[in-house]
Amino acid sequence: MFDKKTVSIEWGGKTLTLETGQIARQADGAVLATYGETVVLCAVTAAKSVREGQDFFPLTVHYQEKFSAAGRIPGGFFKREGRATEKETLTSRLIDRPVRPLFPEGFYNEINVIAQVLSYDGETEPDIVAMIAASAALTISGVPFMGPIGAARVGFSNDGEYILNPSLDDALGEDGRLDLVVAATQDAVMMVESEAKELTEEEMLGAVMFAHEESRKVIGAIIDLAEQAAKDPWEIDTSDDTSAIKEKLRGIVGDDIAAAYKLTNKSQRSDALNAAREKAKEAFADEEPQTQMVANKAVKKLESEIVRGAILKDGQRIDGRKLNEVRPIEAMVGLLPRTHGSALFTRGETQAICTTTLGTKDAEQMIDGLEGLSYNHFMLHYNFPPYSVGEVGRFGFTSRRETGHGKLAWRALHPVLPDHEDFPYTIRILSDITESNGSSSMATVCGGCLSMMDAGVPIERPVSGIAMGLILEGDDFAVLSDILGDEDHLGDMDFKVAGSEKGITSLQMDIKVAGITQEIMKTALAQASEGRAHILGEMQKALGSARGEVSKHAPRIETMQIDKSKIRDVIGTGGKVIREIVAETGAKVDIDDEGVIKISSSNADEIEAAKKWIEGIVEEAEVGKIYTGKVVNIVDFGAFVNFMGGKDGLVHVSEMKNERVEKPTDVVSEGQEVKVKVLEIDNRGKVRLSMRVVDQETGEELEDTRPPREPRGDRGPRGGGGGRGGDRRGGRGGPRRDRGDRDGGNKDGGGEAHVPDFLKD
């Protein structure tokens, strides 16, 4: 019934299997990819015609994780998968970025690529599997896709070994220093995304080349599948011959465009270019709509040729800089008075206001994904309002681009954060782009780093970032440092590198041509290293290292470790004790399963009060030590005093003063603060206290002037008829069953009631 085609290879110690022909057969191309026990289905559909007047390529990639893949039910009210999570958005971009440049210019048919995770084994990351499935589905679909591409994840161990497809825990765990994702064709690298623990340029380049070599194995498997199952290629006319129109436009507006690109001010340059475009539009106003559309595209090609030619032939950039020159930088910290940390970072016409906010554990972000619930204590959010580029547009909705740029900056800064145990704050960086003309994500890295240092976050080393560009014509190429927005649009590469003086923390690369060589990447990394060092120097003029303490507006957090066996004592029945601590002291108290307690408040006295309370609960009382306590209950034979948070002891009436005391209420009252000395702790943990041997004013121990008590054996019987014990128990009119039952004595009143030794006079 099914014409199923299957290809399998051994790859990275696991079997990678690609199948088609059984599932989603009405799609133009559908591939079920299995790696380990992680399974991803990718289906590709393409519109057979182009909408009238359309002059762009509408490729849409959707990646979705099904909770059932991990045997889980989604949280929330609706109990079904909802809007895309951050991870799903980032993986969608991860698939989109390398495949988009591999469609021919002039192909405008709408294409949907939908990848769904159907099974997840908890070890094999599904993003790589989804990229491979998408490449295979596009390759067999018949659409004009100039692939296939392969993909691989690479780790780098502390021993200097590259690891293929590690789990995320292994990639950046205690023994790992790199999480790198690469997509590549047979001949060249197309896309790089990474987070690293300060790798050198040589180590990073080696990882990219290792990934490229492993990707070729996947490409071979996809080609084998396509030879069995590929549909006939589409016959599509994408030949918009614009050469004649372009030459006509060169004579009309060529000089105007060249003059416009010599204006260093972005606003003036934009106005001049718009005027040239309007002039070109008027020249073709009487032509057919199709000719007008071709003319509009020809203007863009003409602009590209003029800019690219000037850079390759004369080394002349749009704003007059040298190829490796960074725009002027101005950085300042402490911009905003009430934030915990703030910075204004300006590089040329790109500017970001970055703020850092420090919070407690309850501010952590809860993430519900295939791996289960997890908590994130470092967040970075990037906003790109339309006014930053002088335009009007939709405001408030977080775009995929904003999510991606924020995650890139997050990856750049995450490796230099202090250990959470040493700095137990939840950290949120907010980057608001106020001006943009090239690489606002790298401005976010620089500004975010400065704002953290201003907030007193003890990062290991400052981090800076730079965006590199590329102009490639045949064998000739030029690498540009700190690219402008126009250089990004008209160039062939967006290559972003962030890192400290010690090494690279993040690398992202997108290519608009059919890939770049190792030589180009090596040149770009070396040039980026020089640019990063220069930017770090400019940042240090504003603030060289983290401030010695957190902002006065930030909460203080103090951490203490208690024995696990004491956790229940601190929490109390139904949380009674910990709620009382919070209510009485005003501090927030969080405790985990390992006995780590975090006490937070903006008031140091509140923290100290909560800490002492908890110490009193978990501390063991010492015989002979003096404590301050509070009277919590008065009985006829003495008073119970809470003296160590969760511990009570009895001050017998005879231990209240050196002289005889008739009633405990003559000396103490409930709620009164008293100073007591521990006299005895019996084998059941009962504590006997004394007030009379402690100066109630100073807390100093007094000399015991009372004569020693006579031995207990000479005092006579304590039941039925005689002595004080008899008066209080067996006397006064005969037996008292209720007293006997309560005190453990003879129910007939004739024997001695059982009273703990320390209660006996």
UniProtKB/TrEMBL annotation:
<dbReference type="InterPro" id="IPR004088">
    <property type="entry name" value="KH_dom_type_1"/>
</dbReference>
<keyword id="KW-0694">RNA-binding</keyword>
<feature type="region of interest" description="Disordered">
    <location>
        <begin position="692"/>
        <end position="761"/>
    </location>
</feature>
<comment type="similarity">
    <text>Belongs to the polyribonucleotide nucleotidyltransferase family.</text>
</comment>
<dbReference type="GO" id="GO:0006402">
    <property type="term" value="P:mRNA catabolic process"/>
</dbReference>
<dbReference type="GO" id="GO:0004654">
    <property type="term" value="F:polyribonucleotide nucleotidyltransferase activity"/>
</dbReference>
<feature type="domain" description="S1 motif">
    <location>
        <begin position="624"/>
        <end position="692"/>
    </location>
</feature>
<dbReference type="InterPro" id="IPR012162">
    <property type="entry name" value="PNPase"/>
</dbReference>
<dbReference type="Pfam" id="PF03726">
    <property type="entry name" value="PNPase"/>
</dbReference>
<dbReference type="GO" id="GO:0006396">
    <property type="term" value="P:RNA processing"/>
</dbReference>
<keyword id="KW-0460">Magnesium</keyword>
<dbReference type="InterPro" id="IPR015847">
    <property type="entry name" value="ExoRNase_PH_dom2"/>
</dbReference>
<dbReference type="InterPro" id="IPR036456">
    <property type="entry name" value="PNPase_PH_RNA-bd_sf"/>
</dbReference>
<dbReference type="InterPro" id="IPR012340">
    <property type="entry name" value="NA-bd_OB-fold"/>
</dbReference>
<dbReference type="InterPro" id="IPR020568">
    <property type="entry name" value="Ribosomal_Su5_D2-typ_SF"/>
</dbReference>
<dbReference type="InterPro" id="IPR027408">
    <property type="entry name" value="PNPase/RNase_PH_dom_sf"/>
</dbReference>
<keyword id="KW-0963">Cytoplasm</keyword>
<dbReference type="GO" id="GO:0005829">
    <property type="term" value="C:cytosol"/>
</dbReference>
<protein>
    <recommendedName>
        <fullName>Polyribonucleotide nucleotidyltransferase</fullName>
        <ecNumber>2.7.7.8</ecNumber>
    </recommendedName>
</protein>
<dbReference type="GO" id="GO:0000175">
    <property type="term" value="F:3'-5'-RNA exonuclease activity"/>
</dbReference>
<dbReference type="GO" id="GO:0003723">
    <property type="term" value="F:RNA binding"/>
</dbReference>
<feature type="binding site">
    <location>
        <position position="494"/>
    </location>
    <ligand>
        <name>Mg(2+)</name>
    </ligand>
</feature>
<dbReference type="Pfam" id="PF01138">
    <property type="entry name" value="RNase_PH"/>
</dbReference>
<dbReference type="InterPro" id="IPR036612">
    <property type="entry name" value="KH_dom_type_1_sf"/>
</dbReference>
<dbReference type="InterPro" id="IPR036345">
    <property type="entry name" value="ExoRNase_PH_dom2_sf"/>
</dbReference>
<dbReference type="GO" id="GO:0000287">
    <property type="term" value="F:magnesium ion binding"/>
</dbReference>
<comment type="function">
    <text>Involved in mRNA degradation. Catalyzes the phosphorolysis of single-stranded polyribonucleotides processively in the 3'- to 5'-direction.</text>
</comment>
<dbReference type="Pfam" id="PF03725">
    <property type="entry name" value="RNase_PH_C"/>
</dbReference>
<dbReference type="Pfam" id="PF00575">
    <property type="entry name" value="S1"/>
</dbReference>
<dbReference type="InterPro" id="IPR003029">
    <property type="entry name" value="S1_domain"/>
</dbReference>
<keyword id="KW-0808">Transferase</keyword>
<dbReference type="InterPro" id="IPR004087">
    <property type="entry name" value="KH_dom"/>
</dbReference>
<dbReference type="InterPro" id="IPR001247">
    <property type="entry name" value="ExoRNase_PH_dom1"/>
</dbReference>
<dbReference type="Pfam" id="PF00013">
    <property type="entry name" value="KH_1"/>
</dbReference>
<dbReference type="InterPro" id="IPR015848">
    <property type="entry name" value="PNPase_PH_RNA-bd_bac/org-type"/>
</dbReference>
<keyword id="KW-0548">Nucleotidyltransferase</keyword>
<feature type="compositionally biased region" description="Basic and acidic residues">
    <location>
        <begin position="704"/>
        <end position="717"/>
    </location>
</feature>
<keyword id="KW-0479">Metal-binding</keyword>
<feature type="compositionally biased region" description="Basic and acidic residues">
    <location>
        <begin position="725"/>
        <end position="761"/>
    </location>
</feature>
<feature type="binding site">
    <location>
        <position position="488"/>
    </location>
    <ligand>
        <name>Mg(2+)</name>
    </ligand>
</feature>
